[in-house]
Amino acid sequence: MTAARVWRAAPWAAGNNRPESAKPPQKCLFAALFRRRSAAGISAVACLLLCACGGSPEPVPEAVPYTDPGFVEAGDHRLHYALTMTRDLPAGIAGSYSIVQRRNLALLTIALAVRDSIGATRINALEVEAESVALTGERNALLLVRHDEAGGPSWLATVEVRHRVPVTIDIRARATVASQEIHVRLTREFRLE
pTM here? Predict the structure, then answer.
Protein backbone atom coordinates (compact mmCIF):
# COMPACT_ATOMS: atom_id res chain seq x y z
CA MET A 1 0.00 0.00 0.00
CA THR A 2 1.37 3.39 -0.90
CA ALA A 3 1.45 6.42 1.38
CA ALA A 4 -1.08 8.34 -0.76
CA ARG A 5 -3.48 5.48 -0.61
CA VAL A 6 -3.17 5.22 3.19
CA TRP A 7 -3.91 8.94 3.55
CA ARG A 8 -7.12 8.65 1.47
CA ALA A 9 -8.30 5.60 3.34
CA ALA A 10 -7.56 6.74 6.86
CA PRO A 11 -6.26 10.29 7.11
CA TRP A 12 -5.98 10.14 10.92
CA ALA A 13 -3.99 6.99 10.87
CA ALA A 14 -1.63 8.36 8.27
CA GLY A 15 -0.82 11.46 10.31
CA ASN A 16 -1.38 13.68 7.30
CA ASN A 17 -4.51 15.39 8.61
CA ARG A 18 -4.61 19.14 8.63
CA PRO A 19 -5.58 20.83 11.94
CA GLU A 20 -8.25 23.04 10.31
CA SER A 21 -10.06 20.04 8.85
CA ALA A 22 -9.84 17.88 11.98
CA LYS A 23 -13.15 17.09 13.72
CA PRO A 24 -13.36 16.24 17.40
CA PRO A 25 -14.69 12.79 18.18
CA GLN A 26 -18.44 12.57 18.90
CA LYS A 27 -18.00 11.59 22.52
CA CYS A 28 -16.16 14.88 23.23
CA LEU A 29 -19.02 16.89 21.71
CA PHE A 30 -21.52 15.02 23.92
CA ALA A 31 -19.37 15.53 27.04
CA ALA A 32 -19.09 19.29 26.38
CA LEU A 33 -22.85 19.54 25.88
CA PHE A 34 -23.48 17.58 29.09
CA ARG A 35 -21.07 19.83 31.06
CA ARG A 36 -22.85 22.98 29.81
CA ARG A 37 -26.26 21.63 30.77
CA SER A 38 -25.01 20.50 34.16
CA ALA A 39 -23.50 23.90 34.88
CA ALA A 40 -26.75 25.62 33.91
CA GLY A 41 -28.76 23.21 36.06
CA ILE A 42 -26.46 23.68 39.05
CA SER A 43 -26.68 27.46 38.64
CA ALA A 44 -30.49 27.33 38.49
CA VAL A 45 -30.69 25.16 41.62
CA ALA A 46 -28.27 27.47 43.45
CA CYS A 47 -30.38 30.52 42.54
CA LEU A 48 -33.55 28.79 43.74
CA LEU A 49 -31.92 27.88 47.03
CA LEU A 50 -30.69 31.44 47.56
CA CYS A 51 -34.14 32.87 46.80
CA ALA A 52 -35.88 30.36 49.07
CA CYS A 53 -33.70 31.25 52.03
CA GLY A 54 -35.53 34.53 52.48
CA GLY A 55 -34.19 37.82 53.76
CA SER A 56 -31.72 38.61 56.42
CA PRO A 57 -31.54 36.57 59.61
CA GLU A 58 -32.38 39.66 61.67
CA PRO A 59 -35.54 39.52 63.82
CA VAL A 60 -38.78 40.95 62.48
CA PRO A 61 -39.17 44.61 63.48
CA GLU A 62 -41.72 45.50 66.15
CA ALA A 63 -45.12 46.80 65.10
CA VAL A 64 -45.58 50.55 64.96
CA PRO A 65 -46.71 51.82 68.38
CA TYR A 66 -50.39 52.61 68.59
CA THR A 67 -50.81 56.35 69.18
CA ASP A 68 -54.48 56.92 68.32
CA PRO A 69 -56.18 59.08 71.03
CA GLY A 70 -59.30 56.87 71.09
CA PHE A 71 -61.81 59.62 70.36
CA VAL A 72 -62.85 62.09 67.69
CA GLU A 73 -64.92 65.25 68.05
CA ALA A 74 -67.44 66.86 65.73
CA GLY A 75 -69.77 69.69 66.67
CA ASP A 76 -70.99 69.28 70.25
CA HIS A 77 -70.23 65.55 70.50
CA ARG A 78 -67.28 63.27 71.11
CA LEU A 79 -67.14 59.69 69.82
CA HIS A 80 -65.04 57.30 71.93
CA TYR A 81 -63.83 54.06 70.35
CA ALA A 82 -61.45 51.22 71.16
CA LEU A 83 -60.38 47.98 69.51
CA THR A 84 -59.01 45.53 72.09
CA MET A 85 -58.05 41.89 71.85
CA THR A 86 -60.59 39.75 73.73
CA ARG A 87 -57.76 37.75 75.34
CA ASP A 88 -56.61 41.01 77.02
CA LEU A 89 -59.97 41.54 78.74
CA PRO A 90 -60.45 40.28 82.30
CA ALA A 91 -62.52 37.07 82.23
CA GLY A 92 -65.24 38.66 84.39
CA ILE A 93 -65.79 41.55 81.99
CA ALA A 94 -65.74 39.30 78.91
CA GLY A 95 -68.22 36.96 80.58
CA SER A 96 -70.59 39.79 81.54
CA TYR A 97 -70.91 40.72 77.86
CA SER A 98 -71.05 37.05 76.69
CA ILE A 99 -67.80 37.46 74.78
CA VAL A 100 -65.82 34.32 74.01
CA GLN A 101 -62.13 35.08 74.46
CA ARG A 102 -60.21 33.83 71.44
CA ARG A 103 -56.68 34.38 70.21
CA ASN A 104 -57.80 36.02 66.94
CA LEU A 105 -60.84 37.99 68.13
CA ALA A 106 -60.92 41.70 68.95
CA LEU A 107 -63.69 43.73 70.59
CA LEU A 108 -64.78 47.07 69.13
CA THR A 109 -66.32 49.44 71.70
CA ILE A 110 -68.10 52.66 70.71
CA ALA A 111 -69.64 55.33 72.98
CA LEU A 112 -70.97 58.82 72.29
CA ALA A 113 -70.74 61.70 74.79
CA VAL A 114 -71.30 65.45 74.96
CA ARG A 115 -68.06 67.19 74.03
CA ASP A 116 -67.61 69.55 76.99
CA SER A 117 -69.27 67.45 79.68
CA ILE A 118 -67.40 66.73 82.88
CA GLY A 119 -67.16 63.01 83.48
CA ALA A 120 -67.83 60.17 81.09
CA THR A 121 -71.61 60.41 80.79
CA ARG A 122 -72.59 58.73 77.54
CA ILE A 123 -75.60 59.78 75.47
CA ASN A 124 -77.96 57.97 73.16
CA ALA A 125 -77.19 58.11 69.46
CA LEU A 126 -79.67 58.28 66.62
CA GLU A 127 -77.48 56.04 64.51
CA VAL A 128 -74.18 54.19 64.94
CA GLU A 129 -72.60 52.13 62.16
CA ALA A 130 -69.29 50.33 61.80
CA GLU A 131 -67.72 48.51 58.85
CA SER A 132 -64.54 46.52 58.50
CA VAL A 133 -62.53 47.38 55.40
CA ALA A 134 -60.29 44.69 53.91
CA LEU A 135 -56.96 45.45 52.23
CA THR A 136 -58.70 44.85 48.90
CA GLY A 137 -61.30 47.52 49.71
CA GLU A 138 -64.14 45.08 50.43
CA ARG A 139 -66.45 46.44 53.13
CA ASN A 140 -68.39 44.31 55.65
CA ALA A 141 -70.91 45.75 58.11
CA LEU A 142 -70.18 44.84 61.73
CA LEU A 143 -73.02 43.68 63.95
CA LEU A 144 -73.15 46.30 66.72
CA VAL A 145 -74.96 45.31 69.90
CA ARG A 146 -76.22 48.09 72.17
CA HIS A 147 -75.58 47.72 75.91
CA ASP A 148 -77.42 50.06 78.30
CA GLU A 149 -75.45 50.64 81.49
CA ALA A 150 -75.48 53.09 84.39
CA GLY A 151 -73.14 55.53 82.58
CA GLY A 152 -75.13 55.40 79.35
CA PRO A 153 -75.30 53.23 76.25
CA SER A 154 -72.32 51.72 74.44
CA TRP A 155 -72.12 49.62 71.29
CA LEU A 156 -69.99 46.48 70.99
CA ALA A 157 -68.94 44.30 68.05
CA THR A 158 -66.43 41.50 67.63
CA VAL A 159 -63.90 41.57 64.80
CA GLU A 160 -61.71 38.70 63.64
CA VAL A 161 -58.06 39.69 63.17
CA ARG A 162 -55.00 38.02 61.65
CA HIS A 163 -51.35 38.08 62.71
CA ARG A 164 -49.68 41.34 61.60
CA VAL A 165 -52.39 42.11 59.04
CA PRO A 166 -53.80 45.63 59.51
CA VAL A 167 -57.50 45.76 60.33
CA THR A 168 -59.37 48.93 59.38
CA ILE A 169 -62.72 49.93 60.86
CA ASP A 170 -64.91 52.78 59.56
CA ILE A 171 -67.20 54.20 62.26
CA ARG A 172 -70.04 56.68 61.64
CA ALA A 173 -72.36 58.09 64.28
CA ARG A 174 -74.96 60.83 64.60
CA ALA A 175 -76.47 61.94 67.92
CA THR A 176 -79.57 63.68 66.51
CA VAL A 177 -81.04 64.47 63.13
CA ALA A 178 -79.72 68.06 63.36
CA SER A 179 -76.25 67.16 64.66
CA GLN A 180 -73.15 66.74 62.55
CA GLU A 181 -72.14 63.21 61.55
CA ILE A 182 -69.01 61.94 63.27
CA HIS A 183 -66.74 59.76 61.15
CA VAL A 184 -63.51 58.04 62.10
CA ARG A 185 -61.32 55.42 60.43
CA LEU A 186 -59.42 53.22 62.86
CA THR A 187 -56.51 51.01 61.73
CA ARG A 188 -54.75 48.58 64.05
CA GLU A 189 -52.27 45.73 63.67
CA PHE A 190 -51.99 42.90 66.19
CA ARG A 191 -49.42 40.21 66.94
CA LEU A 192 -51.09 36.90 67.65
CA GLU A 193 -48.29 35.19 69.54
Answer: 0.62
